[in-house]
Write a structure and sequence with these properties.
This protein is α/β, with parallel strands linked by helices. It has helices at 3-14, 66-78, 97-114, 129-134, 161-167, 191-213, 222-228, 236-241, 251-262, 300-309; strands spanning 30-35, 41-48, 56-57, 62-63, 83-92, 94-96, 118-127, 139-142, 147-149, 154-155, 233-235, 247-248, 268-273, 311-314. It has one domain (24-169, 179-314): 2-enoyl-CoA Hydratase, Chain A, domain 1. The strands form three sheets. Strands 1, 2, 5, 7, 8, 9, 11, 12 and 13 form a nine-stranded mixed sheet that branches. α2 packs parallel to α3 (97-114). The chain is globular.
């Protein structure tokens, strides 16, 4: 090849005339029939892992946030005339206040537009923001061994000023007001700042109570709910006795209840998935990369969110 043409070719690439991305684009949802037959469909919708509006994945395989995927799935179900009901399968300790509230809002808006029954089934963990999301459902059930509750708000905060002093590191900030760096980890919070933070927590906690009081199956008044909503967790049987859920059953029984609510005898149970997230049954986890937070550990997904979490509807044992 003539060296002049070689220089032209190099300049062509350096100028960005051709852009080749090594990151595969996010594919649209595909539908998978998990079980059943007939024309009607019941969508099995997963809320699995820590709830957040933050994008997931790595720089080489970025995925939409849980909030984004829930909205996308609900839009697909809304446009499908054969979808007669939705079962929200929950296995989550909760997450950010905003993420939990948006998913709740999207489920409520979907019910209003689509006018189909929406039930929630807590299969392992449905605490704090997980229970907040479940409160949008017409009926909440839980597996016999599930854990739920933890109604409340937490603010995750670390103070590292003592460690910095030992290391001889000094932090200095120019600020327009004395509260501008409120809750910075680089100095101890003042009593006034702690009071301000508690005011925010009280407001978000009040929002949580209103959501639970407004849920379709609720029979509790505010006083009774406030007694229950001190942050503690409950077994499925305890939650049923406390009127926080409507039933204790397995997922297949929850599906039978939903068929009755949708007034259909037969239905195909379907899920939406992207390439690489195979589901073979109603108990398969659609989130192949989701790390479940168990009762005794935070898990990597929570650790990734810690710097951005702030005020959270999250059970953090």
């Amino acid at each position: 090849m003539n060296w002049k043409w070689l220089l032209v070719l190099v300049a062509f690439f350096l100028n960005g005339c051709i852009h080749v991305s090594v990151i595969p684009p996010v594919a649209p949802f595909q539908e998978k029939v998990l079980e059943g037959e007939g024309t009607p469909k019941i969508l099995l919708l997963d809320v699995s892992g820590t709830i957040s509006e933050k994008k997931r994945g790595t720089s080489f395989r970025e995925r939409p946030s849980m909030v984004g995927e829930i909205k996308e799935a609900l839009k697909k179900a809304e446009d499908d005339p054969d979808v007669v009901a939705v079962l929200v399968r929950i296995n989550s300790p909760g997450g950010t206040v905003t993420g939990s509230d948006i998913i709740y809002h999207e489920l409520m808006a979907f019910k209003k537009r689509k006018k189909v029954p929406v039930h929630a089934a807590i299969v392992g963990l449905g605490t704090s923001g997980g229970y907040y999301v479940a409160s949008a459902a017409d009926r909440i059930t839980a597996h016999k061994t599930a854990i739920t509750g933890s109604i409340g708000v937490i603010f995750l905060h670390f103070e590292v000023d003592g460690l910095m002093n030992k290391l001889g590191v000094v932090e200095w900030s120019a600020k327009s007001g004395d509260k501008k760096d409120m809750m910075t980890p680089f100095r101890a919070a003042t009593p006034e700042e702690k009071q301000i933070a508690m005011g925010v927590i009280d407001g978000l906690y009040g929002r949580f109570l209103e959501v639970v009081l407004a849920r379709p199956g609720n029979t509790l008044d505010r006083k009774a709910l406030t007694t229950l909503a001190d942050g503690r967790v409950y077994t499925a049987d305890q939650a049923l006795a406390a009127h926080l859920i409507d039933g204790v059953c397995y997922l297949d029984e929850a599906l039978d209840d939903l068929k009755m609510a949708a007034k259909v005898k037969q239905a195909r149970v379907v899920s939406y998935y992207r390439a690489g997230n195979y589901q073979g049954s109603i108990y398969a986890d659609a989130e192949a990369s989701a790390q479940m937070v168990g009762p005794f550990s935070l898990g990597p997904d929570v650790m990734e969110l810690l710097p951005d979490l702030g005020f959270a509807y999250l059970w953090k044992p």
